[in-house]
């Protein structure tokens, strides 16, 4: 990747489809589903029979075939094997996996999955890497124009799949700096918020994870220009990512990246310490 220019990605719409309607995300998922159905029928299996072989219910197999749900890479490999597909399904695995994310986030998702360090400043919602499934679903239901339920479920699955980063070895360094106001929003209701606060506390006890809260009432605040994420790659590069209104920008320009890195450092100094932050979240739990 060149380091002397900016990279920009923008979506055509929130469903992640291209302007052609059946292209892009929808085209890949539908093509996979049709191939799966044809191979299943060729093998003389009903959906129930295939489901037993790959560990899914008949309704899930139907959702895969109809392009309403995205299977995991492991499920694709298993289906390829049991149906004797000879790699036909496995060849689509990478593209199908990308379809879990809206177009504007795909470059960032690929970087995130291989990053050695991530430093995220969040101002509106809890960072995706910390979200519970209920919280993620509630956030996606807030989108306007509204997203179809099937797309919401695909996005939830994709968001939770990103949390495999916690199982990576060697473990990447993860830092999350969250505005306190985010932790007071009752998105999805009080029970959803409580579960989300508990999830943050749980993940923050990983030794490679630090969570800091920017409390309300700070007189000095370096983050008024909005949310952003810093990414350290295995190649020793540092990049920055920011998104707003369904557009995203990936920065590789050294001056801009250095500016945002400096801003993140100032924000961390202005925020509560990790220990103070966890104590603050525990206090919020007592009020929820």
Highlighted features:
288 residues, alpha/beta, 7 strands, disordered N terminus
Molecular structure report:
The longest helix has 19 residues, at 24-42. The protein is 44% helix and 14% strand. Strands 1-7-6-5-2-3-4 form a seven-stranded mixed β-sheet, with helices on both faces. With 288 residues, the protein is of the alpha/beta class. α9 links the parallel β3 (173-179) and β4 (209-214). It starts with 6 loop residues before the first strand and ends with a helix.
> What is the number of beta strands?
7
Average pLDDT level: 87
Helical content class:
40-55%
- What Rg is obtained from the alpha carbons, in whole angstroms? 21 Å
Q: DSSP helix count? A: 11
Strand order of the largest sheet: 1-7-6-5-2-3-4
Uncertain runs: 1-24
Order of helices and strands: EHHHHHHEHHEHEEEEHH
Strand content: 5-15%
Please give the structural blueprint.
Layout (H helix, E strand, L loop, with lengths): L6 E3 L14 H19 L4 H8 L3 H8 L7 H10 L10 H6 L7 H9 L2 E6 L10 H9 L7 H13 L11 E7 L10 H15 L4 E6 L13 E5 L5 E7 L2 E5 L2 H17 L3 H14 L1
Helix pairs in contact: 2-3, 7-8, 9-11
Task: Describe what is shown at a glance.
This protein is of the alpha/beta class and 288 residues long. It has eleven helices and seven strands.
């Amino acid at each position: 990747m060149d380091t002397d220019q900016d990279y920009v990605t923008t979506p055509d719409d929130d469903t992640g489809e291209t302007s052609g309607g059946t292209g892009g995300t929808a085209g890949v998922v539908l093509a996979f589903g049709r191939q799966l159905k044809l191979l299943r029928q060729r093998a003389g299996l009903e959906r129930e029979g295939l489901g037993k072989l790959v560990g899914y219910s008949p309704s899930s197999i139907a959702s895969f075939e109809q392009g309403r749900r995205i299977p995991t890479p492991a499920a694709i490999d298993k289906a390829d094997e049991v149906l004797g597909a000879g790699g036909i399904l496995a060849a689509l695995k990478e593209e199908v996996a990308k379809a879990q994310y809206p177009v504007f986030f795909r470059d960032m998702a690929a970087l995130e999955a291989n990053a050695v360090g991530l430093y995220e400043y969040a101002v509106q919602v809890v960072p995706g890497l910390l979200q519970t499934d209920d919280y993620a679903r509630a956030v996606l239901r807030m989108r306007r124009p509204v997203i179809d339920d099937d797309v919401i479920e695909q996005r939830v699955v994709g968001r939770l799949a990103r949390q495999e980063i916690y199982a990576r070895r060697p473990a990447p360094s993860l830092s999350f700096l969250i505005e306190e106001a985010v932790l007071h929003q009752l998105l999805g209701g009080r029970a959803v918020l409580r579960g989300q606060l508990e999830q943050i506390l749980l993940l923050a006890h990983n030794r490679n994870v630090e969570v800091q809260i920017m409390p309300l009432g700070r007189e000095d605040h370096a983050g008024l220009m909005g949310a952003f994420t810093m990414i350290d790659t295995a190649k020793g590069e540092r990049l920055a990512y920011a998104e707003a209104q369904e557009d995203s920008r990936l920065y590789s320009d050294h001056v801009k990246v250095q500016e945002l890195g400096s801003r993140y450092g100032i924000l961390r100094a202005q925020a509560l310490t990790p220990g103070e932050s966890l104590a603050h979240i525990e206090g919020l739990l007592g009020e929820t």
